[in-house]
Amino acid sequence: MRELLTRMHAWMTNYMKSFYTDDEEVQRGILIKEQHTGYVTANCIELAKFLNFSQHDTELAEMIGLFHDVGRFYQYQTYKTFNDAQSEDHAELAFKVIDKLDFFHELNAEDYDVLHFAIQNHNKKLIAPTDDERKEIFAKLIRDADKLDIYRVLQPYFAQENADKLPNFITGRSPEISPDFLEKFVRGEQVDYREIRTNGDRKLVRLMWVYNVYFKWTMKKILERGYIDAIVENLPMNEKVAEGVRRLKKYVEDFVA
Ligand SMILES: [Fe+2]
């Protein structure tokens, strides 16, 4: 599988470069996703090792990281947004690319099904129910690896003055948090990304992600890198928000213990 991966990496490098453009705004989005692809692939490998995956499964994890966002390039070039609700589900877009590539015929059917399930479920609110433990763990792995890197990407933009510097900032700029989001945050629930209305909501959603982290490895990295504090420091504070933050911090403390 190593040799197949080498060819896949070379293909991906060329594929991403084929989207380079003189349009500065589009180029910025493409470069963000190129870098993100590299970091997520690395996260997948590290996390697979932490989970004591076999060499074969570590390589499959690497492949899932490498291709999980392959749909983003066409999405940004065509729609100039990373917002799935305003364009197309980028996991579905990924398969429009993947299914045209001969590489994937070199995988056995079982591995292909695992890769398909993991990529399809990487960007959903929750993982679709499955009895297949291998599918489930690979879906969890890519979701953790992806979230960890999205925190890195978003960190410079949590401060309100930088909120509109995000590529194609599509939701409201208000720093306030919508009441229904706040209720869910205090209860430790997840929300539907499509319901984001304000910049406050956007930040809160990233905090709520913490409740959907699966592995200690990921949670420790989130904690060490200060991603939680970076968001909390930039939230509009009131008693209810503070209550939600206390609940969250206790949750994280117990999780990594
Ligand atoms: Fe991603």
Descriptors:
Hypothetical protein af1432; single chain; mainly alpha; globular; binds fe (ii) ion
Q: Strands, helices and their partners?
A:
Blueprint: H1 2-17, H2 24-50, H3 55-67, H4 71-79, H5 90-98, H6 109-120, H7 133-154, H8 179-186, H9 199-208, H10 216-224, H11 227-232, H12 239-256
The structure holds fe (ii) ion.
Explain briefly what this protein structure is.
The chain has 257 residues and is mostly helical. The chain contains twelve helices and no strands. It has two domains: 2-153, Orthogonal Bundle (Hypothetical protein af1432), CATH 1.10.3210; 165-256, no CATH class.
Gyration radius (Cα, Å) is 18 Å
Instruction: Report low-confidence residues grouped into runs of 5 or more.
Output: none
Structural class: mainly alpha
Distance from N terminus to C terminus (CA atoms, Å) equals 36 Å
Number of discrete helical segments: 12
Shape: globular
How many domains would you count in the coordinates? 2
CATH topology of the largest domain: Hypothetical protein af1432
Largest beta sheet, briefly? none
**Overall CATH class of the largest domain:** Mainly Alpha
CATH architecture of the largest domain: Orthogonal Bundle
Helix share, percent: 55-70%
Would you count the extended β strands for me?
0
- What is the strand content? under 5%
